[in-house]
Amino acid sequence: MFKAYRIYDFIKDDSLDMKAAFVDRLYPRGIKKEIFSNFPWLKDITPSTALREWFHEDKEARFDEFCEKFELELDNKKAQSCFKTLKNLEKEYGNIALLTASKDINLCHVVVLLKLLNK
User: Fold this and answer.
1) In sequence order, what E strands does 1-119 have?
2) Cα 90 off chain centre by
3) What is the pLDDT of residue 72?
């Protein structure tokens, strides 16, 4: 099973004993490389720069359309390889945390990833 967490909350909560993967395109500010190196960084399962910038202009009004466009972007070999990696991690470890630096995990690309992974 997959669940979303902000990377900042995840690394501070010692009670979370689960494998994690970072699913943002940009490196998270303030996270030490020693900590970050514990997570696979799956850049190919993130929105394109153009889509991300368009979405950030008005997140609330564009969220539904963003989700549709992002789902279409995920229809490529690199993204499918990332999905396979995540599914393999799930088989091996059970619960997997999808980590993001987004301020609102309910209003970002991780919502789409969770929907697709938890089908």
Assistant:
1) 2-6, 19-22, 96-100
2) 15
3) 96
Q: 94: left (phi > 0), else alpha (psi -120 to 50), else beta?
A: left
What is the crossing angle of helices 59-73 and 110-117, to 10°?
A: 50
| Residues of the chain below pLDDT 50 | none
- Reported as type and span, the H/E element at residue 1 is none
Per the listing, tokens 């999905």 go with: 83
Residues 6+ apart with CB under 8 A from 114: 2, 3, 4, 98
Look at phi and psi of residue 91 and say left if phi exceeds 0, alpha if psi is from -120 to 50, else beta: alpha
Query: Sign of dihedral through CA atoms 88, 93, 95, 99?
Result: negative
Q: Give φ, ψ of 19 to 5 degrees.
A: -75, 150
Token duo for residue 23: 């699913």
86-112 pLDDT tens trace? 999 999 999 999 999 999 999 999 999
pLDDT at 15: 66
DSSP conformational letter for 118: T
